[in-house]
Amino acid sequence: MLSRHPSRRLLGLLGLVVAGIAFALHWRRNPSPCPYSQRRWIDLPRPVITRSRVRDLLGPRPGERVLEVGPGTGYYTLPVARSLEPDGTLHAADVQPAMVEHLQTRLQEANRRNVEPVGGDAQALPYADDSFEAAYLVLVLGEIPDQERALAELRRVLKPGGRLVVGELLPDPHFVRAGQLRRRAERQGFRFEERDGTPIGYVARLSVPA
Fold first, then answer.
1. CB atoms < 10 A from the CB of 21, how many?
2. Helix H or strand E encompassing 88
3. Is 132 helix (H, G, I), strand (E, B) or coil?
4. In b/e form, how buried is each residue of 99-120, taking b as 16+ CB within 10 angstroms?
5. ∠ CA 39-44-48 to the nearest 5 degrees?
6. Which residues of 55-80 are buried (b: 16+ CB within 10 A; e: fewer)?
7. What are the angstrom distances between the C-alpha of 139 and each of 3, 62, 63, 210?
8. Which of the 8 DSSP states describes residue 127?
9. Which sign, positive or negative, has the C-alpha torsion 11, 14, 16, 18?
10. What is the structure's pLDDT at 81?
11. Which residues form a coiled coil (predicted)?
12. What is the four-CA torsion angle of 127, 130, 132, 137, rounded to 10 degrees?
């Protein structure tokens, strides 16, 4: 039977939409990582910022030491780690202990030994200067309260000539536009090299001048 009060249903739906918009605006103004309880969403397929596109633009090579910031449950971790074999290492730093534990379990199940998950804040990375040949973060930069500080930290831990790949995709409320990324990264000493994507998302590569 059809509802005798369609206006109430409409108002209810409108209320949900308004609440959703309000939540998105609040989340954008108060950046924070995706909660572990919502991890199922970060394992969904990602158009534009695919695993292959990220890996190809990053160009990981056997024997390199690479950093992933904000790996979450490891959506990009395993493909990149395989490209570093036989003697390269992928360090995966996440600010959420639950994500680090989840990733450790996933790596054990996959018998993947060249990944080192660690707890770490992108605004104060637990690594020495010039530690890595490359680094990447996907759907992460906008979640960091001080993006320029995080970019400065990435600049610090990358070797001269090192590569940085950043991926962003709408409708992420923390979406960082390519122009914003370029301006902020260049202020921290990066050189903008390439952008691959569409109007709704992109993967960009930057580098540290040699």
1. 11
2. none
3. strand
4. bbebbeebbeeeebeebebeeb
5. 125
6. bebbebeeebbbbbbbbbbbbbbebb
7. 41, 25, 26, 27
8. S
9. negative
10. 97
11. none
12. 70
Distance CA 87, CA 21 (A): 47
Cβ-proximal residues to 115 (8 Å cutoff; 6+ apart), any chain: 77, 78, 81, 89, 90, 91, 92, 103, 107
Closest CA to 124 of 160, 158, 98, 149: 149
CA–CA gap between residue 107 and residue 151 (Å, rounded)? 27
pLDDT at 1: 45
Query: Using CA atoms, how far apart are residues 160 and 77, in angstroms rounded to an integer?
Result: 24
Nearest CA among 71, 166, 150 for reference residue 112: 71
- Asked if 169 and 49 count as a contact pair (C-beta separation under 8 A), the reply is yes
Residue closest to 63 by CA, chosen among 28, 29, 87: 87
**What order of strands is seen across the sheet that includes strand 201-207?**
115-119, 89-94, 65-69, 132-138, 158-169, 201-207, 191-198
Model confidence pLDDT, tens digit, residues 138-197: 999 999 999 999 999 999 999 999 999 999 999 999 999 999 999 999 999 999 999 999
Only one residue has tokens 């660690």, namely: 118
Backbone angles phi, psi at 13, to 5 degrees: -65, -40
C-alpha closest to that of 181 among 155, 210, 147, 153: 147
What phi and psi values does residue 161 have, to the nearest 5 degrees? 85, 0
